[in-house]
């Protein structure tokens, strides 16, 4: 039982996309956690979507998946609107703070209005006129208070502090009770009103506002440290003490941001507002030795490792943000400087040789120069043939290959066509009338509704072969829990044919009917996973499939 009040840190920001509100909120959480506080985080997105699952990567970047996938059966909710597909900022929160969040840690306007409408339909408001104020604003505040108390660090204890952001902002909550928030456009107005009320609701000493803003300086390239005279002007016009104006300028890598906050004593300013400066009579000081060592190590890396990322959204790196972070975690752990060569899969296709020969030559050049090939998850048939060609090149030339979700299915299709000579092999996602449907639509999916109708969240995979590469990489475990997001899967009726031809299905679900991991035993490293291992990779704990190494085994 906690006796102290929860502390909240609200992180807000302007409407400049990519300003850095998410990274700032995550970094504040890191610094406060290093001071001995237990932190949680909430992200507030003002859009009307109930989650990020149906949005194009060009809209909000990657769709991040949390542990708690699947449909909600709570009768208070309608259908399966709320699922574990969330904004990519929650990935930053999990990676930076090494916590596990839930779907409720991502608040959207759609979720709030859906909840209020459900209550109105049940008669919870006793016939009153339902309005934005107080019903929507109260729902927002109650949601924040409820979620802030949920344990996120593997213990049964709630956080001390909740950091949350609204109107394009974030929310966090550490074990000494603090939280952070950030927000944006006209749809953000209810959140701004609710948060204004919330600051009075929780009372003095329990609420701290952090605003992230761009300070443009003419004739300067990049983000530079603020001059003292600029800080003085900001203090005068914004009524903020000069010591509370923190400058987060360009750094060599993102892991330096918590160190910038520490060096400018941002923690002291926040802890003072929240009356958390001391434990007893001992001042709280951030302990960031491991974080400092990692940031410094990154800057000193020299030996490159080149990974060809073959995908559809290569023009927008945020589409594969978690994959890039997982590669980064692994490369730093192995003392290698990561170089990602973006290869648009459609540029590898034969038609590209005629239509865009320069792009074709460049794409194949990058693929052939790579130390490893990675085909990430995705949907739709654009560029699929190029991905198949990439898998074929890696298989035939003994180049390390990792296929994630669709990337695993691509490897299966390529094997069926090239090795088993099943030229009609395909996925029913791309060809519903495929002669050899080696990838099929899964039973619990929906062909009419896109949102929250996939196999989502953490599911258990059981290793079928004890001495396979994947099991060894996971420390000779008998099973592993990883996060999923897919509608199609390998046709289980064809598995005996595949295994007879040499493709090994080393990981399956508890029923034995769902194929989770494939391997080519004769290849140095050719692995496909139906799940998404990138979502659980952490800076100090890289995903085993990305690392390709274990203390007792390496490839």
Automatic annotation (TrEMBL):
It catalyses: UTP + L-glutamine + ATP + H2O = CTP + L-glutamate + ADP + phosphate + 2 H(+). Coiled coil: none annotated. PROSITE patterns: GATASE_TYPE_1. GO terms for molecular function: ATP binding; CTP synthase activity; identical protein binding. Residues 317-547 form the Glutamine amidotransferase domain. Residues 7-224 form the CTP synthase N-terminal domain. It is an enzyme of class 6 (ligase). Catalyzes the ATP-dependent amination of UTP to CTP with either L-glutamine or ammonia as the source of nitrogen. This is CTP synthase. It comes from Eleusine coracana subsp. coracana. The lineage of its organism: Eukaryota, Viridiplantae, Streptophyta, Embryophyta, Tracheophyta.
